[in-house]
Description:
Layout: E1 7-8, H1 18-23, H2 34-51, E2 56-61, H3 64-73, E3 81-86, H4 89-100, E4 104-109, H5 118-127, E5 133-137, E6 139-140, E7 145-146, H6 149-157, E8 162-166, H7 178-181, E9 185-189, E10 200-205, H8 207-212, H9 225-233, H10 243-259, H11 261-281, E11 285-286, E12 296-300, H12 307-318, E13 320-321, E14 323-324, E15 333-337, H13 344-360, H14 369-383
Parallel strand pairs: 1-13, 3-4, 3-5, 5-8, 8-9
Antiparallel strand pairs: 2-10, 6-7, 9-10, 11-12, 12-15, 14-15
Helix pairs in contact: 2-10, 5-6, 11-14, 12-13, 13-14
Amino acid sequence: xxxxxxxxxxxxxxxxxxxxxxxxxxxxxxxxxxxxxxxxxxxxxxxxxxxxxxxxxxxxxxxxxxxxxxxxxxxxxxxxxxxxxxxxxxxxxxxxxxxxxxxxxxxxxxxxxxxxxxxxxxxxxxxxxxxxxxxxxxxxxxxxxxxxxxxxxxxxxxxxxxxxxxxxxxxxxxxxxxxxxxxxxxxxxxxxxxxxxxxxxxxxxxxxxxxxxxxxxxxxxxxxxxxxxxxxxxxxxxxxxxxxxxxxxxxxxxxxxxxxxxxxxxxxxxxxxxxxxxxxxxxxxxxxxxxxxxxxxxxxxxxxxxxxxxxxxxxxxxxxxxxxxxxxxxxxxxxxxxxxxxxxxxxxxxxxxxxxxxxxxxxxxxxxxxxxxxxxxxxxxxxxxxxxx
Length: 389
């Protein structure tokens, strides 16, 4: 009660993988030396392996939004027709970036908590055969909903357009077969399932997408895909890199490779499943029940209670940081993350804390109800399996 450990329970930034944090202490290395080139090449190669793609992978010192910006400015021209799937704050960000560059945007909207159906994308492409690109979030973390990017990939593959996927919170939380599904651009970020601090953005780019760089006339300088590809092939970044983060990423990628990307995804999915079961058992309502993401679970606050109270109580009582809703959902939902360096012990504590907070604020629940739901899921998926060191 007197000692409160800080616990980061948000969908980004996420808890840090300790060996990656330690690796950052070796960052007094010059970025134009062979020692660093070796580390940089290793990161790019391991990213390709972990992402499961034969496509080129590039990396920038930026937040994930930098890679989103690059995907627009390097591939398209002013006035190009594009289709944006918008079902939350990050879908709205795609709209804002596309409009900032003067693109002709058709927006396929879904209410917060829902996702844009793939057949709607197919219909939009049939109606707009000149469309050059489709933009979507794999996981719309602002609402806790996921898009069916596999089906969207099939729809886009029958057109001349490319599919650009913000998988910043999708990578490591849901299956994403980049090559087989035709995900031409797939974007990730360091502070999500990769378990290191914010500051690195990366993307994979297909041969089909590379062809778009030959005709694009939009201005770009720092986020230059061609330049970054040439530099990366030489084991360098075009500009001063985030050296400490790259060393951390190298360590995190080693961990993910050892574990297996499939198991990292499975971990997030199990935690998400258990969280959904727990909050429903407590009488709460899921915000995205139809297409829930595994990156984070969005939960409606009890009637008459501002979700900010739950967020504040977690911080003040337990030193824990969970996420409020964003935009119009602020005060209505709270979000608990599952991506990256989270385990069931974290979830036992989160749900136990939630029970205390609900009772303390006039929403009576029976202590242990939600925790028992998590324990039952753990028993199903883990107790009967052999324990390894």
